Every structure is written in structure tokens, then in C-alpha cells.
Amino acid sequence: xxxxxxxxxxxxxxxxxxxxxxxxxxxxxxxxxxxxxxxxxxxxxxxxxxxxxxxxxxxxxxxxxxxxxxxxxxxxxxxxxxxxxxxxxxxxxxxxxxxxxxxxxxxxxxxxxxxxxxxxxxxxxxxxxxxxxxxxxxxxxxxxxxxxxxxxxxxxxxxxxxxxxxxxxxxxxxxxxxxxxxxxxxxxxxxxxxxxxxxxxxxxxxxxxxxxxxxxxxxxxxxxxxxxxxxxxxxxxxxxxxxxxxxxxxxxxxxxxxxxxxxxx
Length: 265
What we know:
The structure is a single chain. The radius of gyration is 19 Å and the shape is globular. The protein is built from 4 helices and 17 strands. By secondary structure, the protein is α+β, with helices and mostly antiparallel strands. Helix 2 (203-220) runs antiparallel to helix 3 and helix 3 (226-243) packs antiparallel against helix 4. A hairpin with a 2-residue loop joins strand 15 (165-170) and strand 16 (173-179). It has helices spanning 55-60, 203-220, 226-243, 249-264, and strands spanning 19-20, 25-28, 38-41, 46-49, 65-69, 78-82, 88-94, 100-102, 111-115, 117-120, 125-126, 133-137, 142-146, 156-160, 165-170, 173-179, 186-187.
């Protein structure tokens, strides 16, 4: 089900010695990333932010960027900041699975909200992980991915980088991302831009929540019986039948992923 193949090894490993554990973040009021550049590839559970289409283009940015390049060795996050002005320019974030479906509304009571962009305070690379935990709030259609270091009971700052994408800061460090209207940002393989004018039916959020619950059930069961496998396949195919009449790319992404899961089972 993986969408991208990573190239590992070679001289890129030398970057590791320049990395620091912590990264301090500033912010300004200039939004430079488009809402259409926020993509959620369901088949690989990768959040892709920015105009770059593949890892080859991301690798070309290394010499122009500071950031976290852990993807060179694993599925960890890539976070990019422009070397000239230190502004955030994009990211590739592998969501931790399974994505946990949450009922009710996301508690934002301790968050200070601002709009703009973020920038690193020092010219250096760093380690950063924003995807220790992944949650989907189906009632509000919000995707939350955050680090285990985030203290949810502590004061946080939410910087809205686009109308749908926010970064969570705590103690001047990145601790997570939020995608509002998350189902609008679902894309099938080989699509590189979200159609911001696309009108997604409200039923997709509920269906997506059921899909993630089935994935969680499948991954939590180490040894499925033949009967349990058949029941899971039946449930996944019911989701497929529900979204089959829709041709919008978000539905296509879900259809393709459901078929991949059924083939896997």
C-alpha cells in the first residue's frame, strides 16, 4: 500500500552529524503556502505539503533548505525551511497507523490561534517528529497528527498556515499539525494538487471514520480466523459500494485504498 519508495544510503548519511534534537520556531503574518498544496495520500498515509511532486524534487531542495531529513533513513518526517529567509516551505509527514477515530469535537480550549507562517530561529538542521499519534475527528472532519512530546493539557499556539492547515507550537517547538476539511485533501496516487473548489458530500467523513475503525480492528488482530477475514472483507466492500457512485478524487482515493486493503486480506 506504500505510495513512495525511499532511496537509502549514500553520502546523504553525512547530514546526520549536523542534526540537533530541538528546534525553536518563530512566526510571522505572511502566508506563503496554498491550500491546494496540502495533500493527504490515503494509500500510503502520507501528508504532503508544498509544490514538490516526489522525493526526487524534495532531495533537490536539500541544498536550499534547513530542516529534518529523517525520511532518508525511515518513514519519519521531512520538514523544510528555506535557507534564505528561514520560512517554512513544506513537509512530508508519514502518519502513524492505525489512525484513531475520535467521537465528539476536538478540544481547543487551551490554544492561542494566529495566522501566518512559521520560521526556524537558527540556521541549522534538526530532528522533528509530528506523527507519533494520528487522530481523525469524523464529526468535524479534522485530522490531527502530533508528537508524543506534546502536552495536550498545556498551553499551545495554533498557527493557521492556510485556511485548512495549521501547525501546533508548544514551548516554541513544532508539536503537531491539523488539517481541517481533511477529506477535501484526500488524493489518489499521482495527483499533485487539491481542487479547492471540489464539493465533497458530508457522508464521506462518516464513511472515512468507519474505514479507519476497520483498519484499526484489522491491525489489532494478530491472527484473524477465516471467518473474521471474510467479515472484514465484507465490511470494506460495503464501504466501496457506498462510494462507488462518486467520481470526485477524494472518493477515488478511498475506493483505491479499500481495494488495496481487500487484496491484502
